[in-house]
UniProtKB/TrEMBL annotation:
Residues 264-284 are annotated as: Disordered. It comes from the Bacteria. This is ABC transporter ATP-binding protein. Keywords: ATP-binding, Nucleotide-binding, Transport. One of its GO terms (cellular component) is plasma membrane. GO terms for molecular function: ATP binding; ATP hydrolysis activity; L-isoleucine transmembrane transporter activity; L-phenylalanine transmembrane transporter activity; L-valine transmembrane transporter activity. Residues 15-261 form the ABC transporter domain. Residues 269-284 have a biased composition (Polar residues). GO terms for biological process: D-alanine transmembrane transport; L-alanine transport; L-isoleucine import across plasma membrane; L-valine import across plasma membrane. The lineage of its organism: Bacteria, Thermotogati, Deinococcota, Deinococci, Deinococcales.
């Protein structure tokens, strides 16, 4: 008699969007996107310039309110939540430009990221109440944990502006981690050299190994193919594909979109053109 083994239960998505869209006047920046992000994985959001990648992040993180569709995170509808409420639910975000306070210390920057988890108000701060002091201690401890995760514990007292571009990006990630997120939305920092970029990709892998889920926007296909577990492809604000790197690299709609973007100077098109000429990206 053949033993029947129980089948594993399907994994519940960490985040789901259903028919998500937003219009600015008559322009559909994102249109009818249905997709999901799985827990404990790196999902890359890719597409030609103007594909709607940053707008998609803005919708998930509460910066924009969608004109259609639904966003569910950990089983809760977060479609109409404001940004600070989304952060409180466990979604943190970094930005293309490194948004840190240059004159403050690395530690003070990270502490700002933890403040979303505190309860003290303006009056508490003015009167230095016990609640304010407890919150400050918690923020300091949470910030130090975040700095340790990004490798900056030894630079905690330095002004954030004294760090190089990679260091500033790590401060930005620490600010996001200090809010204790389940999902990190990450966009690349401008001005980093290839070595710095590779170092940060290694950090992303380490964070995911530690239990975090990550969605990132990245323009370098060689990095995407080597880093991402899943890829979501947007084009003209619509989803044209989602799957593993191996699946995406062979998808005709993706190849066509990237080659088409090359005619308009898109970065994705340039990457694809380089691959087809044998000078650029290795998709293995």
């Amino acid at each position: 008699m053949t033993e029947t083994r129980p089948q594993p239960l399907p994994q519940t998505p960490l985040l789901q969007v259903q028919d998500l869209g937003i219009r600015f006047g008559g322009l559909h920046a994102v249109r009818d996107v249905t997709a999901s992000l799985q827990p404990g994985r790196i999902t890359a959001i890719i597409g030609p310039n103007g594909a709607g990648k940053s707008t998609f992040f803005n919708l998930i993180s509460g910066f924009y309110q969608p004109t259609s569709g639904r966003i569910t995170f950990r089983g809760e509808d977060i479609t109409r939540l404001r940004t600070h409420e989304v952060v409180g639910r466990g979604i943190a975000r970094t930005f293309q430009t490194t948004t840190i306070y240059q004159e403050l210390s690395v530690l003070d920057n990270a502490m700002i990221g933890h403040r979303v988890r505190t309860r003290a108000g303006l009056l508490d701060a003015l009167l230095r109440t016990g609640r304010e002091r407890r919150d400050e201690e918690e923020s300091r401890a949470g910030a130090l944990r975040a700095l340790d995760r990004v490798g900056l514990a030894g630079q905690a007292t330095l002004p954030a502006g004294a760090l190089n571009q990679e260091g500033k990006k790590r401060v930005g990630i620490a600010m996001a981690l200090a809010s204790d997120p389940h999902l990190l939305l990450d966009e690349p920092a401008a001005g980093m050299n290839p070595e710095e970029t590779v170092n940060l990709m290694g950090l992303i892998r380490d964070l995911v190994s530690g239990g975090l889920s990550v969605a990132l926007v990245e323009h370098k296909m060689s990095l995407v193919m080597g880093l991402a577990d899943d890829i979501l492809v947007l084009h003209h604000g619509q989803k044209i594909a989602q799957g593993t790197p191996a699946h995406i690299s062979r998808d005709p709609a993706v190849v066509e979109a990237y080659l088409g973007s090359h005619a308009h100077g898109g970065q994705m098109g340039q990457e694809q053109a380089g691959r087809t000429q044998g000078t650029g990206v290795n998709h293995a």
